[in-house]
Hints:
The chain contains 6 helices and 8 strands.
Amino acid sequence: MYMYCFPGVKRYGLVMTDENPQSPVPSGLRIGDVPPDFEARSTIGPIQLSEYRERWLILFSHPADFTPVCTTEFVELARRAEEFEARECALMALSVDSLFSHFAWLRMIRDRFDVEVRFPIVEDPTLVIGRALGMVAPTDNDSATVRTTFFIDPAGVIRAMTCYPASMGRSIPEMLRMLDALQAIDAQGGLAPANWHPGDPLLKLPTQNLDEVFGAKDAADWFLREARKGKAK
Ligand code: BEZ
C-alpha cells in the first residue's frame, strides 16, 4: 500500500475487504471479477471505488498526462460526458501522474479546447492501484499504464474490458455502444450480435431442449433467433 508521508494526512491505497482479502498482488482481472477496492486522491477529492456501486462505472487508465493521444481522449470524453450521465454511468480515469499534474493538464485542456473535464482522475504515483487492477504488468519497468478500460456494473462486477496500446486512442462512440449493449442485455436478457447498435434486436438465448431443436422451423432457428423488442428471454 502506498502512503503519503505527511503526519496526520489520510493514507490512501488498496482497501482490504471480504471480497478482497488478499494482499495487493499484481492481478490479471477477468470479466466477472470484482476489482479490488481502493481509496485515492482524485481531481474531485478523495474517492473510494466501492462508493461507485449502484450505477455503472467506466474505470480507465491512460499512460500519462500531457500526451497527445490521451489529450484527445479526455477532450472527447468531456464533450460527451452528458451521454454517459444519461446512461447513469460514471467515468473514472487513473494514471501514474500526480494530482497536481492532473490539475495542470485539465487547466490546459480547458484553456486550449474549451471543455472542462469534471469526472475524477485518480493519481497513482506508485502504481499500486494500476498493478492491482492489472493495468501494469508486474514485470513492466515502464511506469505508464496502458489504455485499459473496465466496464463495471452496478453490483461492482467487471462486465467487459478493453486494452489499447499507448499509440492508439479509444473510440468514445464504441465505449458508449458497449455500455448500451451491456445495459440492453441486462434489461432484456438477450445476447448482442456482431455490430449491434441501440435499436437493433438482441438475439434469444439458444434452447437447451432437444425437442425444440427438432421442432425448429429450420436448421438454425433453434440457436440463432432474433428476440422481439423487449422480449429476449
Ligand atoms: C499519447 O497519449 O499520445 C501517448 C502516451 C504514451 C506514450 C505515447 C503516446
